């Protein structure tokens, strides 16, 4: 196969992300990305050394436009954290199959590092320090990751909720009632409602 011209890191990342979006993270490999680019796997090794490097490029692309600027300092700290978490959600929700990579490459992705630095600064200003700050940051990362994957794999508007609502009510009275109510909850209400519960718990 001919060697593609202008094979930049961004173009490599776009090809890898196309594979992930279409076929899932497990499908990502040097071979599948080479096929996406119309080149041989050996030719791809001229540009990247392995799948791990491809993953790093994907994360850089996903988080490349993430706004890490600290929100207005005169706003309540919970509102500032909510703004930062909302920005992260906006950046990764379009590529839910790639969200795991934002965690595994968090130690070297500039966008993710700057996001965490800003969030830690807000937590410090709120008096959350030491091990509480460690747990708070991990909890926020875990919430974003889990909430987006849950919305992607089992949305409230999906068939799973309908199936739960149709369960025998005498055996699952609370579950069926909750599933019926779930149809009234939109994705933003679900995401930010859960986040606010988490943020209130950080004062404990």
Automatic annotation (TrEMBL):
It holds the Pfam family TetR_N. This is TetR/AcrR family transcriptional regulator. Residues 6-66 form the HTH tetR-type domain. PROSITE patterns: HTH_TETR_2 (PS50977). The lineage of its organism: Bacteria, Bacillati, Actinomycetota, Actinomycetes, Kitasatosporales. Keywords: DNA-binding, Repressor, Transcription, Transcription regulation. Residues 29-48 bind DNA. Gene3D superfamilies: Tetracycline Repressor, domain 2 (1.10.357.10). PANTHER family: HTH-TYPE TRANSCRIPTIONAL REGULATOR RUTR (PTHR30055), TRANSCRIPTIONAL REGULATORY PROTEIN (PTHR30055:SF151).
């Amino acid at each position: 196969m001919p060697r593609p011209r202008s094979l930049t890191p961004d173009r490599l990342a776009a090809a890898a992300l196309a594979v992930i979006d279409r076929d899932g993270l497990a499908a990502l490999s040097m071979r599948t990305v080479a096929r996406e680019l119309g080149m041989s796997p050996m030719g791809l090794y001229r540009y990247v050394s392995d799948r791990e490097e491809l993953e790093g490029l994907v994360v850089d692309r996903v988080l490349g436009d993430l706004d890490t600027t600290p929100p207005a300092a005169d706003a309540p700290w919970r509102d500032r954290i909510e703004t930062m978490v909302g920005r992260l959600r906006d950046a990764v929700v379009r590529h839910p199959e790639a969200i795991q990579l934002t965690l595994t490459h968090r130690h070297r992705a500039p966008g993710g590092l700057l996001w965490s630095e800003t969030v830690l600064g807000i937590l410090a200003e709120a008096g959350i320090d030491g091990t509480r700050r460690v747990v708070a940051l991990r909890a926020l990362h875990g919430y974003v990751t889990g909430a987006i994957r849950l919305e992607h794999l089992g949305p409230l508007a999906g068939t799973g909720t309908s199936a739960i609502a149709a369960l025998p009510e005498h055996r699952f009275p609370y579950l069926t009632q909750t599933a019926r109510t779930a149809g009234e909850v939109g994705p933003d209400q679900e995401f930010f409602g859960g986040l606010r519960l988490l943020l209130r718990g950080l004062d404990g």
